[in-house]
């Protein structure tokens, strides 16, 4: 089973070579996943606010090269990563979660860990194509790709918008049960899991765009998390799904959650990705070699077969150091960093 080369890229010899590296083996899950521990919490966003202070706080996982200015090669030149797969120096980030206390101050909610999924869910555009062939894999995310999913300014929800459907929250309750909503959970949770499904369809040309979204799209036939890509974005890539876990147990029954941009609804959740995989050929082979019963532990798994350390993610220092901003690490803040006012909507209450 091979990654089918998208028609628009048939002239790109380098990607052709990668496509031909896929090996034919039996697989069962069509996905591989790994864990990450926190890297840093910063007023930084090298995609949206390159070189400067971002408008709100983010929690970040992945490669230790994360900083406010990141060039095309910065991520994959990282010394280390806080994710379990050593050759993935990519960065993944979302807004920091706070809890607004009764006196109006804001308490930092602990970001515990992340789970990162790479999935076979989308397929390339074709005239009259209405479903995907499970035996053909999409392209691995191309080197240098960066993208943003979600809208930090949203305070309402439209179920017909695939980009909004791709954002969700899971309340993991004290009895182990869970409940998924688009808005913040309305009941006390032991853990809140913030979830972002990144777009899986690429225009085949641009590794970024002015709004950091237009070069990517969700499927035109199917749903936000599976289906056939649109003609405007014909190239299917691996789907990337982010799960960020926040420890809300210490808050107890008085949970008044708000994201760092002042969003008290949860609808403004968004996620960012900068490609930092150091072996593109191994990444292209991964859907063929790392999705069997043993997953990343398979001795033939392309992204881990040369890895000397365990898949357990480890805390790592940043290569370039960390900005010295008070973001709530020392106790509750009178206001959100960046002076972001809190906004609600009636439908999320």
From TrEMBL:
<feature type="domain" description="DUF1996">
    <location>
        <begin position="45"/>
        <end position="277"/>
    </location>
</feature>
<feature type="signal peptide">
    <location>
        <begin position="1"/>
        <end position="22"/>
    </location>
</feature>
<protein>
    <recommendedName>
        <fullName>DUF1996 domain-containing protein</fullName>
    </recommendedName>
</protein>
<dbReference type="Pfam" id="PF09362">
    <property type="entry name" value="DUF1996"/>
</dbReference>
<dbReference type="InterPro" id="IPR018535">
    <property type="entry name" value="DUF1996"/>
</dbReference>
<feature type="region of interest" description="Disordered">
    <location>
        <begin position="307"/>
        <end position="349"/>
    </location>
</feature>
<keyword id="KW-0732">Signal</keyword>
